[in-house]
Amino acid sequence: MGVLSLQVVxxxxxxxxxxxxxxHFDSMDLCQPEPGDWNSYLQRFIDGRxxxxxxxxxxxxWWEKKQSHPEIHYMFFEDMVEDTGxxxxxxxxxxxxxxxxxxxxxxxxxxxxxxxxxxxVTNYSSFVDMDFNxxxxxxxxxxxxxxxHFTLAQNEQxxxxxxxxxxxxxxxxxxxx
Length: 177
Description:
Layout: E1 8-12, H1 15-28, H2 38-47, H3 55-68, E2 72-76, H4 77-82, H5 84-95, H6 101-110, H7 113-118, H8 152-166
Parallel strand pairs: 1-2
Helix pairs in contact: 5-6
């Protein structure tokens, strides 16, 4: 009997957009504790006091693990938004898929945010544990939405903390998207 090969696809998103996304998710997910106001929520995110733990530990832990484990494919949300086709090509290569161009184009169409938002399978619209009157599960799918939520002081505090926590990793998120 052959050895089972496990492949992992990890998708990382920039910290600020991730914090905003999780705030809206935690607001509508009835299984989560009430997230409180944005200011206290952001402070908990910075401190790593989240249900999923520290964002920093999570993204850097998987980044470091992938360096020695070729069965881990690390992707960036921002890259998928920028060029979905390119990222599908990279993923197909990682998975050893020899999909035809037409199949990849079909996949690219299906995974576009607006199409996934309309799809009952991916938008979780049938989940009773989510209050869609507060926020849809798939809210915006945009890069840079954090700018509408962070105050100048929050942004400065976040940037200072980010530099400290990310200084010992080779993981780099793009600064301009």
